[in-house]
Amino acid sequence: MFENLSDKLERAFKVLKGQGQITEINVAETMKEVRRALLDADVNYKTAKDFTDRVKAKALGQNVLTSVSPGQLLVKITNDELAELMGGQNAGINLSGNPTVVLMSGLQGSGKTTFSGKLAAYIRKKGKRVLLTAADVYRPAAIDQLETLGKQLDITVYSERENKNPVSIAQNAIAYAKQHGFTAVIIDTAGRLAVDAAMMDEIAAIKKAIQPQETLFVVDAMTGQDAVNTAKAFNERLNIDGVVLTKLDGDARGGAALSIRSVVDKPIKFIGTGEKMEALDEFHPERMAGRILGMGDVVSLVEKAQEQFDEKAARELQKKIAKDQFGFDDFLDQIGQIKKMGNMKDLMGMIPGVGKALKNIDIPDDAFKGIEAIIKSMTPEERSNPALINGSRRQRIAKGSGTNVEAVNKLMKQFEETRKMMKMMGDKTKMMNMMKQMQQAQGMRR
User: Fold this and answer.
1) Cis before 99 (ω within 30)
2) Closest CA to 2 of 231, 344, 273
3) What is the per-residue pLDDT across 19-71, written as a single tens digit (0 to 9) for each?
4) DSSP characters for 50-105?
5) 323: Cβ–Cβ under 8 A, 6 or more apart, which residues?
6) CB 90 within 8 Å of CB 144
7) What does the alpha-carbon distance between residue 74 and residue 78 come to, in Å, rounded to a whole number?
8) Kindly report the CA angle at 294 between 288 and 297, in degrees rounded to 5?
9) What is the fold, at CATH topology level, of the domain defined by 3-85?
10) Is residue 158 scored above 90 in pLDDT?
């Protein structure tokens, strides 16, 4: 996501490298490259021009501090303007009402049904009891797909297979929710083209009948400027509350994310970053701007970690570490929590400076597969007491996991280092001494 744009912006800022001050000439040259980079990313032409004009106007005449280079100052101004271009702040979702009603709209194949499932899981974390509603009466497999997702997530799905009126299905679902204690209803509707008058009349009628708290437009980010134009057409008819960009983990050039707010004047509320039900992120313009400019997104990374954090399990783990009882089963649990956080390459790309280093490196989703195979080839006793694993046992484990002794040895070493580090982190005195030693060593180097 945004890799090509990030590279081109970085090259554009190199124009100012080594320059002592910002001038009209060097800023104009840099902004020309920035505009070209934005257009290559499929950003709307007027949006790209207005953006570079604003950055140029803010940059000219600014005094450059001795501790800040002209390039750094321009990156800061560009970062702020990029965030503003995408909406400035996270818009959030309106969960008022009892029940909260969310109406989904969008084109065929945009990922509406999958997003409905993801949103249901997201809203449930907010303390709501969610009812998914199948109101797509045209696609034969639509109800089956939603019911499969509901089963996977353990979320109830409301459907009426014989009823072909989506307006009454939506109304009946809300009545059912009120009777059975559901506090949120998500209405998954049929995909439709903005030029199809009858279908647009239908979704407008659904909205009028149910008066939802949120009307979301789901669009495939891969379609670039078409996504922006379609969002505009839907907004003119439905007055949507926000946009959802799906498939941002693919080869999307980023133009839709950068253009929608300025063209449609509606916020991006969520982005889909994968097929898994957990692959849904709230859209934070200021964080996305940082990622585009190669600054990472540590806040989102921490939030993802906190979502998987189990306080009770953490306390139990701490006790095991203190007693030196941390075993391979615990190690396996930690891997499971990391995997739930999402795509590994995306996660590592949130760390400042790491995204660029990983540009041409493929990190598959099953990156932990070999490690898991080795651990699962151990006996329960070996997992709880790794000291038992001698040479002959390592050979057996290697054979059972389809790996080799070298891979088993490497894992054993990594595990031991992890165990030592975790024990040291639990021992505050040792941790303080280690930090003092590091400070002293830094002072000696100076």
Assistant:
1) yes
2) 273
3) 556 677 777 888 888 888 888 877 878 888 888 888 888 877 665 544 456 66
4) HHHHHHHHHHTTPPPPTTS-HHHHHHHHHHHHHHHHTTSS-------SSSEEEEEE
5) none
6) no
7) 6
8) 45
9) Four Helix Bundle (Hemerythrin (Met), subunit A) (1.20.120)
10) yes
380 pLDDT above the threshold of 50: yes
List CB contacts of 273: < 8 A, sequence separation 6 or more.
1, 248, 249, 279, 280, 281, 342, 343, 346
Answer whether residue 315 shows pLDDT above 80.
Answer: no
∠ at Cα 104 (100, 109), nearest 5°?
Answer: 155
- Tell whether the model's pLDDT for residue 361 goes beyond 70: no
Determine whether domain 100-295 maps to CATH 3.40.50.300.
yes
Q: What is the spatial distance between Cα 32 and Cα 367, in angstroms, rounded to a whole number?
A: 41
pTM: 0.63
Residue 63 and residue 235 in contact, taking contact as beta carbons nearer than 8 Å: no
CA dist., res. 27 & res. 71, Å (int): 10
Residue 36 in tokens: 């070209």
Nearest residue to 41 via CA among 83, 75, 85, 7: 7
> Cβ contacts of residue 255 below 8 Å, gap of 6+?
38, 41, 42, 43, 44, 224, 225, 228
Q: What are phi and psi of 427, to 5 degrees?
A: -95, 100
Residue ranges covered by each domain of the chain: 3-85, 100-295, 319-335+362-445
Cα dihedral 337/338/342/343 (nearest 10): -150
Pairing of strands 242-246, 214-220: parallel
- Per-residue pLDDT band for 289 (boundaries 50, 70, 90) equals confident
What is residue 445's predicted lDDT score, i.e. its pLDDT? 42
Residue 287 vs residues 283, 284, 435: alpha-carbon distances, Å: 8, 5, 31
Q: What is the CATH number of domain 319-335+362-445?
A: 1.10.260.30
| pLDDT of residue 384 exceeding 80 | yes
204/3: higher pLDDT: 204
